[in-house]
Amino acid sequence: MSFDFWGEIKDFLISIWWLIIPLVFLPIYGSLSTFVSQEKKKREKKWVVLEIKMPRDLQRTPASMEQVLSTIHGWGGKSSDRAIDWTSLELVSIGGQVHFYIRVKDSLRNILESSLFSVYHDIEAREVEDYVSMIPSNTGILHAQGKDVWGAELILDKEGAYPIRSYTEFSSGGDEKHFDPISVIIEILSRVKKDEIIGIQIMLMPVKTKDIKNQYKPILDKLKGQDKDLGEETKPKSTTEAKIARAIEANFSKPFFDTLIRVIYISPKAIFQENYAKTGLLSSFNQYSSPDLNSFKVNDGVAVGGAKSDKFPFVFAEARNRDRKEFMLHKYRHREIPQNTLWGVLLTSTPFHINNKSAFIHLSIESLATIYHLPTIATLTAPFIKGVESKKVGPPAGLAIFGEEGGEDLFK
Fold first, then answer.
1. Can you tell me the distance from the alpha carbon of 154 to that of 57, in angstroms, rounded to the nearest whole number?
2. What is the pLDDT of residues 304-359, one digit of tens each?
3. For 39-80, how does the pLDDT look when each residue is reduced to its tens digit (9 = 90+)?
4. Average pLDDT over residues 227-244
5. Torsion of CA 102, 264, 358, 346, to 10 degrees
6. Of 373, 394, 412, nearest in space to 59 by CA
7. Confidence (pLDDT) at 310
8. What's the whole-model pTM score?
9. Phi then psi for 149, rounded to 5 degrees?
């Protein structure tokens, strides 16, 4: 009697079907359960948007914002809540009026305010209505209002171990010793016309410094000439590599955040200037580029218009770009972060855009304070923003400023 190998296999599988099915579907069910749980928690959380208003003679440097970011980093967060516990730093121009916002969980509001006031003694931080209500919720409403949208997310050109150009480098030497890099962005935002909006969101979630060091240790070892693959130290590295290694070590001395940077531009079609937002706003981030270290670039997999320049430039480019606009409006309004579950990706995707291209970057508090901080007094007096100053009598670039006689009228 011959042995029926495949028949025996079939019988065996039938006998243990009750074990196989859970093993196959449990990961899928777990992913769906996690996605549903996260979405439910997002809706249950209470958030507040604080607008920061400052006096005209603010004397603090970006180092003050480092202290605030250090406090935010200290909040940490449960690993199970990483998909929902995010703080957002936002710099927004509404018709040329530039606003500094911070969105935070209501339960952490008092701690944030205490941290702000401890280093910025003369500022005002008050809860305001969330400005994102001014942003259309979908492209149907957008077009019905006669408007169009452009948007993008920024990522780093190299690994997060390599720092960007720090504010400490902007304030060193020569005629530029008082230069404040945020003034360039304020200048661009202040030129926005009536009914136009430009917004910058910087989403933050603390990560453990130890994890960052472990993740990027091979990069540092290679730069320092400690090639573990050879089992021994290699020849001493060049002066440039030694300098880069020191910069990375200095970067590792500061707390890090998982970070997502998103920018958006909305305007009536009659005055829509995509090139102004794309070239002006994105080029302002070029000032943070550091030779041999790091710089920002556009995430082409997410950017509106990016469908024309990614791996498949001629495949349904128009439909894909339309869906990217839809996603950009939704993500900015809801301050979405990258999906971390399979079901999250599947259920939030469309036939023309798979929602898995957003990406976090690692930035230290020094790098973040360089990008987002309250403008220093130098910003109010430097010659390169005289055009902004002339737009209003008093505050430059439409900044919400108080502390001067009659200044209270600015808030009415």
1. 32
2. 988 777 777 778 888 889 999 999 999 999 999 888 777 778 878 888 888 889 99
3. 676 776 899 999 999 887 787 889 999 999 999 999 876 555
4. 67
5. 100
6. 373
7. 77
8. 0.81
9. -135, 145
Closest CA relative to residue 251, chosen from 172, 156, 171: 156
Alpha carbon of 296 to those of 102, 161, 190, 334: distances in Å? 22, 14, 22, 24
C-alpha closest to that of 118 among 75, 66, 73, 77: 66
- Strand pairing category for 256-268 and 361-364: antiparallel
Count of residues for the chain? 412
Give yes or no for a contact between 362 and 259, defined as CB atoms under 8 angstroms apart.
Answer: yes
Which residues are within 8 A (CB) of 176 and not within 5 positions of it... i.e. 6 or more apart? 170
Distance separating alpha carbons of residues 297 and 288, to the nearest angstrom: 11
Specify the DSSP class assigned to residue 48.
E
* 347 dihedral zone (left: phi>0; alpha: psi -120 to 50; beta): alpha
Residue in this structure with the two tokens 């002006």, named with its chain if needed: 280
Banded pLDDT at 267 (limits 50, 70, 90): very high
Q: Which amino acid is at 285?
A: F
pLDDT at position 382 is 41
Biggest CA–CA distance in the chain, Å, is 105
Reply yes or no on whether the pLDDT at 6 is more than 70. no
| Gap between the Cα atoms of 294 and 273, Å rounded | 29
For residue 66, give the nearest of 387, 373, 300, 394 by alpha carbon. 373
Concatenated DSSP letters of 69-122: HHHHHHT---GGGTTT--EEEEEEEETTEEEEEEEEEGGGHHHHHHHHHHH-TT
Q: DSSP character for 37?
A: H
Query: Phi and psi for 120 in degrees, rounded to 5?
Result: -115, 90
Q: Which residue has the tokens 């992913």?
A: 31
* Residues 151 and 333 sit within 8 Å (Cβ to Cβ): no
Question: Which amino acid appears at position 136 of this protein?
Answer: P
